[in-house]
Recover the amino acids of this structure.
């Protein structure tokens, strides 16, 4: 009993073309899989944010039931936005940071 295996002879160029095609297919598959995973991550992040919000609401409700004050809602600092304030033309203008002093121009003296 002998088994005969048919061997296909291909050139190097044909082999390279097949490999390129295989890499393209794998790349497309991985790209689509990456898109799906990003969508899943976004969904999970949103769920996490909702869960955190619900947990805080439940903590506040528990505090009220215990006769305590709920956690105060403190708005974001307005100073952080103005820290990098720029003029209308996009430059910092004449604003100097804390403890900053304008540099004096150096005068070069050359004897001619």
């Amino acid at each position: 009993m002998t088994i005969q295996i048919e061997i296909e002879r291909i050139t190097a160029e044909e082999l390279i073309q097949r490999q390129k095609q295989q890499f393209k297919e794998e790349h497309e598959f991985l790209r689509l899989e990456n898109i799906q995973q990003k969508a899943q991550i976004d969904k999970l992040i949103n769920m996490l944010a909702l869960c955190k919000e619900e947990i805080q609401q439940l903590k506040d409700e528990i505090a009220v039931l215990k006769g305590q004050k709920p956690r105060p809602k403190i708005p974001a600092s307005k100073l952080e936005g103005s820290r990098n304030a720029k003029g209308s033309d996009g430059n910092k203008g004449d604003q100097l940071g804390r403890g900053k002093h304008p540099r004096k121009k150096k005068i070069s003296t050359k004897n001619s």
User: Anything to note?
Assistant: The radius of gyration is 33 Å.
